[in-house]
Fold these 3 entries.
Entry 1:
Amino acid sequence: MLAVLQVSTPLGPVVVSIEVDTAGEPVHEQQAELPSGAVLSRWWTDSRLEVRALLVRYDDAWNARQHFTASGCWGVVWSVLTERTTSPVLVRAATPLGHVAFPNTGECLEATEVESSSWIVTVGGPDDELLAARVGSGLPASWAGKVGWRFGVPVAAQGPYSATAGADGVTWVLPPLEPREPATTHVAIAWAPTGADDDGVTGWFAVDTCPGDLLEHAGVGPTRPHRHGWPHVPRLAVGGPPAP
């Protein structure tokens, strides 16, 4: 299954996607807008694999309590729910075409930026350290020792799973899911005028967020999905089988 969303920025769209078990089986899709304006999308297959994405704009909330002002802040909270073992999960945030991205990572943040004479667009999400910290709390317990750090050494040096910022975006290669193991992760996108602050850190700080904050901005509350979906998010009324 390949699920794709786009976030428009002044430098072009950021394409955010999640790929898991691309076996060619039919994929069904639904979308609904929540009262907060956030958009909930669902993709599912007949073999009881479901991907959900909550797309939320949060610049008003972020700007209200920060020294810097971002022109746009968007977050995507991904959730994968399954009744069977899956392939590895690939999450990707591709920066706008025609611009070379420069990694700008930091503590608990894997991020990259593209810049023009007018705008800086920043894309970020959890780094290996944060992935390790979220195992058992949003990420499956079975991922312990497979993502993040182990014995003070990045797991990426010992296995295939890692978060990587590159010249065309940020990529997260994550382990397979076991049956009935939900996984939740996120991507954030922000932009500000070039020169909006002396150090060019507005976008970097704006994407330094987490799934709980994004769900709260969406009016869902600081909760995480479980195998029946997000608490307090209304079920979409038509189409497809019930969520796994």
Entry 2:
Amino acid sequence: MTNDVLALLQRPRTASTARLPIGGGKDYPRTEVALQSWITSRVSGKFDTFRVRDLLERYGTRADEVMAFLAAGEDHPLHCTAELSSRELEFMVQNEQVGHLVDVLIRRTSLAFRGLVTVEMLDEITQHLSVLLGWDDTRALWEIQHTRNTLLRFTP
């Protein structure tokens, strides 16, 4: 798209970001040893190895920012999955442009792609998002149905 705009403006490209790591890709561990070191250095009473690895996979090195956010408030793991917590959902709403249930399951996590979504998960995440996004019961039901329809449409 940038090339199209530059062509319309009759301007040459002066720099390329094609190989520039952005966001969580910046300083991402490049080897298994570096990856293990990154994870181990962040394991604490609040974050076990599994949680740190999961946050790194989801956010890249921005996981440091996420862990600071999680540690700064009351956080509870979800009952339906150890991969998410109440405070991480809050982070997603505030920082990751989550506006729908389907955003969490498809765009912000890989839960749907790995076939891990359950009815319990839909209900529990919707309860949290309803509070965070001000959904009433009608909207919450719509979000669940829309997400189910989306997941079914792409299931072979």
Entry 3:
Amino acid sequence: MKISYNDMFTNISDVAYEILEENDMFNDETDDMFSSDRTCKDVTDMIHDQKIVRKRHFAIKSVLLVAALAAMSSILAIAHNYGAALIDDSNRHLVGKGLHGEGQIIGADEEIEVPDEPSDGIWETTARIKSYKNVSISPNSITEFAVSGDAGQYITPEIIFGNNDLVIFEQEDGSGWELNEGETLMIQATEYEAETNGGNGQEIMYFYICDGEILDGKSEPRKELNQTFELTAEKSGEYYICLLGVSSDPISLKEGKIVIK
């Protein structure tokens, strides 16, 4: 059975909604709690918050929920295997497309195994990050992309990245941007429309690196096609802007710009 991951999470949300309604547990605050994107983000966040747990077995009584969790395993495997990449002729056909996979319906008493979470060793794959203790994420992949241009305005390349892929933008020589306290580094980019999201954008979370330490950009996930993030330096130092994909389907960005304000 082929089904998009976006549709899979929508099905989970619908079932959860029905359960709450049948048990008189529904209230006004649950109106926006069961979107497919929120379900995907919440599940991913729970995985990140349980770094000590490496393997789990679950006996699931709901056939639909078992099939959905099997699909989640596929999502994590796909993200881990591919990571982020420049958009070129080899992957341009994936721009704006949703991930599809085979969902297997299994018996109510059967068990599935959730794959290992990414280990802290992922941070060793980049020389840009020396400390990560103040963030609660553990990316599937980390990829640096060089920008072009100078004189205070830089062009970011077209890229495609998946759920839990961390992207770091850097200058052509690998360095970040030297900011004085109070200066602002801003990134602007436009997503390609996603076919599974009604022409809307996919969700991106923003982080930044300051003198080797990755920190939370203190922003909610952005779902707009036109993405903007501003980082104001709290102290003088070397800064990088980082993007994390938090949608179930790949995110494709057109050329954007980074400017110092």
